[in-house]
Specification:
The complex is a heterodimer of chains A (about 80) and B (about 400). By secondary structure, chain A is mostly helical. Chain A has four helices and no strands. The chains are: A mainly alpha (about 80), B alpha/beta (about 400). Chain A: This is Acyl carrier protein.
């Protein structure tokens, strides 16, 4: 398994920055809802994009505990390791 | 700090919708239905194009008479839940009628369609199971997933290949996999490619639940929904539906050939801990079901009307979904424009649903219409003309 929290976090930031509405100064500690102004649907749709890039499924109940980009990256890495 | 302070964002969003004297779209009152297609709103006769009353059966004389007679014979309520004193002979009769209509062995009736999804999904998918939901699922499906304890995974809307990919990722994991799709999606009126989902279900061994709330009475030779229309009823393990659309009353159900459905009666909290349907509603529902069975021409008229409305709105230069179905939505880009458009339609005597993000797909505001078998061609043309007038007033006509 080659992904690390840092590499997944960097990939998430890169994916987010492809959206022109996302603030340019985001990093791993940015809060997904507060700093990116995403509503619940936008969060779920954005996670779906990341899922496809990394070939992993993130169950919705795991999203409830995720606040920052690094949290999401850590969750994805743990799911990849579990599979 | 007020207990309501967390809703300040909601309050300011509502204030922006009503700024400039616009109506609160969540506070429109239909003072009195005059017929299935016309209601009194703000004292004016208004064309109803947003009631989901697809066959017009909320005003069926046969259903009304059945309700009156049942109320006289049985009273107006059961004062109990299905597992206590709330199961009467009429509940069993209705379940038998629905089983026969769907040609399935078992039926459970719930007090609303919302509860039917909540109660079925939360009970079927347990702690060690997986629920796979279409991304555009109705709130009742998402809420059902939260009431249960299964792991929940979304797949891309109406995309059976995407579902297949996500099921493949779960290969080798223990637990049942329950896939949930809708027959017709309520916001855009798009129809599920049920045969494609049935093929994925067969290949992967998943279970398939279809919410046919908007498609029963609308699609299929006998009105049993998209699964019937696509010839894949045997692949659909559970059909969930509602009485509050094509049957014109209120309540919900789940039908299945699996004997285990009866066990769900013992563990589905939205079934067990609420009052059962009152006798007059059951009687009206059974009468409406008879109307639905005896009048297939209603479905033909409904789809003719859907095509007329869809084509008319497109000819007026408005953007709609690709398919003509009984739900036809006009897609707009800007919430303020959608709110102003919706207000003007009501001023001119046409009621539709204003649907705003995040309750809509792709963050677009919608003017959501639903058509009825009982709309006359003249009523549809009038509604289209009003849409065209408002579009011109607002500079929104792009074509034709």
């Amino acid at each position: 398994m080659s992904e690390t929290v840092a590499s997944v976090s960097a990939l998430i930031v890169k994916t987010l920055l492809a959206n022109p509405k996302v603030p340019r100064d985001i990093n791993g500690s940015s809060k997904i809802v507060e700093d990116l102004a995403f509503d619940s649907l936008a969060v779920m749709n954005f996670v779906m994009e990341i899922e496809d890039t990394l070939d992993v499924s993130v169950p919705l109940d795991r999203l409830a505990d995720i606040r920052t980009i690094d949290d999401l990256a850590a969750c994805i890495v743990s799911l990849k390791q579990a599979s | 700090m007020s207990i309501f302070s967390k809703y300040e964002g909601l309050a300011s969003a509502l204030a922006s919708v009503t700024a400039g004297g616009g109506r609160n779209p969540f506070d429109v009152v239909i003072e009195k239905p005059i017929s299935s297609t016309v209601g009194l709103i703000e004292g004016r006769e208004t064309l109803l194009f947003g009631t989901n009353n697809y066959l017009g059966l909320s005003q069926s004389p046969a259903a009304i008479n059945a309700a009156v007679e049942a109320a006289k014979a049985y009273g107006v309520g059961t004062t109990g839940s299905r597992i206590a004193n709330g199961t009467q002979g009429l509940h069993r009769q209705l379940e038998e009628r629905l089983s026969a209509f769907f040609r399935r062995k078992h039926c459970m009736v719930f007090s609303t369609g919302y509860q039917a999804n909540l109660g079925t999904i939360s009970a079927l998918a347990g702690k060690d199971d997986y629920l796979l939901l279409d991304a555009d699922s109705h709130a009742s499906i998402y809420d059902g997933s939260r009431l249960g304890h299964a792991q929940v995974i979304r797949f891309r809307h109406n995309d059976a290949d995407d579902l297949h990919k996500r099921l493949r990722r779960l290969e080798g994991t223990p637990g049942a996999k329950l896939v949930v799709v809708e027959g017709i999606y309520s916001m855009m009126g798009d129809v599920v490619p049920m045969a494609e989902f049935a093929a994925v279900k067969r290949e992967t061994g998943a279970w398939l639940l279809a919410d046919e709330a908007h498609s029963v009475g609308v699609m299929g030779k006998h009105g049993r929904g998209v699964a019937e229309a696509d010839g894949v009823e045997d692949d659909v393990d559970f059909v969930v539906g509602t009485f509050s659309k094509s049957l014109g009353t209120v309540g919900g159900y789940c039908v299945s050939n699996h004997d285990g459905l009866d066990l769900i009666r013992l563990c589905s909290r939205p079934y067990m801990f609420t009052a059962s349907l009152p006798p007059e509603v059951i009687a009206a529902t059974m009468a409406a079901l008879t109307e639905l069975e005896n009048h297939p021409e209603l479905r033909i008229r409904l789809m003719d009307n859907a095509r007329r409305l869809h084509a008319g709105l497109q000819a007026a230069g408005l953007r709609t979904g690709p398919q003509a179905s009984p739900v036809v939505s006009v897609i707009l880009d800007d919430v303020a424009v959608a709110v102003a458009f919706w207000n003007r339609l009501l001023d001119l005597g046409v009621y539709v649903n204003l649907s705003l993000p995040p309750a809509t797909p792709d963050q677009h505001p919608l003017l959501r219409t639903s058509v009825m078998a009982t709309h006359t061609p003249a009523e549809i043309d009038k509604a289209v003309n009003v849409f065209a007038t408002v579009a011109r007033e607002m500079g929104l006509s792009h074509a034709a």
